[in-house]
Design a protein that fits this description.
By secondary structure, the chain is an alpha+beta fold. The chain has 3 helices and 9 strands; from the N terminus they run E-E-H-H-H-E-E-E-E-E-E-E. Helix content is 18%, strand content 40%. A hairpin with a 6-residue loop joins strand 1 and strand 2.
Length: 181
């Protein structure tokens, strides 16, 4: 045995070891510095993944409302409306098409994007003969708050242009441009 003061007790296995030892000769555990602290506090270390998960959930709860889906369109549906529209016919390489061109008005305080249009085409008797649904991309349709914007929808024609007597355009859905989704 060494003289008093030249030995110390291992922090893990409690055997007497040389005071200068960096690792225990019995259990090989580190005796100094960060490694020693990590071994002694392994229960804290093992809980770090759980703490990271908890912190992530908390941060998502704080940040998601700011970067979430934005305003729901349903309460604003009556404030975003088609104010004018007209049909134009064309013969293309891909076949006959009908264009519907018009303006929409946004009376809300929300900047709307990715607007989903539905065009219903009627014959002379007012009967529905064709329908086209189109979601305009972010760059194709965006209507700022309290303003108007133009739109253009191309539809393949199923019938001769004489059968297309009238059309009606509906805005079915839009996304809040301030949202990240």
């Amino acid at each position: 045995m060494k003289e008093q003061g030249q030995t110390k007790t291992c922090r893990i296995c409690y055997e007497e070891i040389d005071r200068r030892a960096k690792a225990c000769r019995y259990c090989s555990s580190p005796q100094a510095g960060l490694a020693s602290w990590l071994v002694r506090h392994s229960s804290i270390i093992s809980s770090i993944p759980l703490l990271v998960i908890i912190a992530t959930v908390i941060m998502m709860g704080i940040l998601l409302p700011r970067f979430g889906r934005g305003e729901d369109f349903a309460p604003y549906r009556q404030q975003v409306r088609v104010v004018s529209s007209a049909m134009h016919f064309e013969e293309t390489e891909d076949g006959p098409v009908v264009w519907v061109v018009g303006k929409i008005r946004n009376d809300s305080e929300i900047d709307w994007r990715e607007i989903q249009f539905e065009v219903q085409f009627m014959n002379e008797a007012g009967e529905l003969i064709d329908v086209e649904r189109r979601v305009q991309s972010f760059h194709e349709s965006r209507v700022l708050p309290r303003s108007e914007a133009g739109f253009k929808i191309k539809a393949a024609r199923e019938f001769s242009k004489e059968k297309y007597a009238s059309q009606k355009v509906f805005i079915r859905y839009a996304k809040d441009a301030g949202s990240s989704w």
